[in-house]
Description:
Strand content: under 5%
Shape: rod-shaped
Largest sheet: none
Order of helices and strands: HHHHHHHHH
Oligomer: single chain
Structural class: mainly alpha
Number of helices: 9
Amino acid sequence: MTATRIALLLAALLAGACSHTPEPRFDAGLPAPLEFPHAGTAYVPAPDPGALGGLPDEGEAPFAEEATAVAHEAPVTSPPAVGRESLLALGDRSVPRQYASLNLAEEGRRLRTAGDSVKARARLQSALQVWGNNPLARYYLGLLEFEAGQYAQAAAFARVAARGLRAWPYWQARAHLLVAESEARLGEAGQAEAARRRALELDPFVSLED
């Protein structure tokens, strides 16, 4: 074999080596394979608590803190006392006329409790002059009419009061009960039963007593 033929053979071998392209690696740029905790156990990545808002511990039901708080609360044995101690608790100091009217209604309430129905009526009527939509003044005027044996007027006052007391179930229940008691004394059994049922739906402990 001459030197020329040897040179040609070497050139061919070199050309073949340069034209060969290696197969691409599909794992290039990927992180190292995950290490499994135990052989034969599938790896499950932990969720990101920040993205999910936190997760309960294993075996713990969601909202466990809320459930525990509720469990520690004292059992309900009486209706919510919103406005029960003072009608002023229902008032808005930023609305002077409303607040002044509730103050007069509170005075009328206390006078009625003390047995002075004449002064109580005067205060409650003054409350309506200041704020004509005062539902609590109407309720207590209805209660005074009921105690005076004026059942039709009592029912009328109580119905209007109930419409204005939707935001306060404790007081609305009392207004419906006053309707029921008044209608019962008027011989209207159907209306009395309907009003009593509505009162008990709002407050199972409802009573006309302060």
